[in-house]
Structures are given as C-alpha cells and as structure tokens.
Amino acid sequence: MLVVVPVLLMLGSVYLHTVSAGLGDKVAELEGLNSKAAAEREQLEVRVAELSRPGRIRPLARDQLKMRDPEGTDLKVYGKSREDDRQSGGQKKKENPQ
C-alpha cells in the first residue's frame, strides 16, 4: 500500500503535465488565430472606409446608374410646414378636430 500511493501520485503528475502541455499548445494556436483575425478586421475597416467615402459615390451614380445632380428647376417646395408638424415661424399647426 505504501508503494501504490507514490506511484499513483507520480502517474497523476505525469498526466497533469501532459494535459497542461496540450493546453499550452491550444492557447498558442488560439492566440495566433486571434491576432490573424485582428489583422483581417483592420484591413476590412480600411476597406469599408475606402468604399464609403462620399467622393466615390457621385461618380459611380453618374457613370453606372446614369444619375445626375439636381438643378434648381428640379427641386420643388410643396408646403411650408416641416416634418415635425411645425410651421417655419416655430408655432405648432392647429389640428382639425373631427
């Protein structure tokens, strides 16, 4: 019995070291994947910034979609009220009771 306990402790220690080494390799692998994903994220953020800059949109709309900039004759004002239901003087429009 005295011999069995130290042998079991040694086998347990070897097992724990083996598991620990495997986990260390897994941690290194995951850290590599994490840094790779961070680098890819930075590249995608730069690409989004390039694609969404306003100076790029007008030429695309003009050339590919055959759009044009509006001129003074193209714009019409239909009323003096704003979207928040206030007139340009600042007072609220009176609602019609029904």
Detailed description of the structure:
With 98 residues, this protein is mostly helical. It has a domain of 30 residues. 60% of the residues lie in helices and 0% in strands. It has 2 helices and no strands. The protein is rod-shaped and about 100 Å long. The N and C termini lie far apart (98 Å). 0% of the residues are buried.
Helices and strands, in order, run as HH
Helix content: 55-70%
What's the rounded overall pLDDT mean? 81
- State the secondary-structure class: mainly alpha
Number of strands: 0
Overall geometry = rod-shaped
Query: What radius of gyration results from the CA coordinates?
Result: 35 Å
The largest β sheet comes out as:
none
Q: Alpha-carbon distance between the termini?
A: 98 Å
Please state the oligomeric state of the protein chains shown: single chain
How much of the polypeptide forms β-strand, as a percent range? under 5%
Uncertain runs with pLDDT below 50, 5 residues or more? none
Number of helices: 2
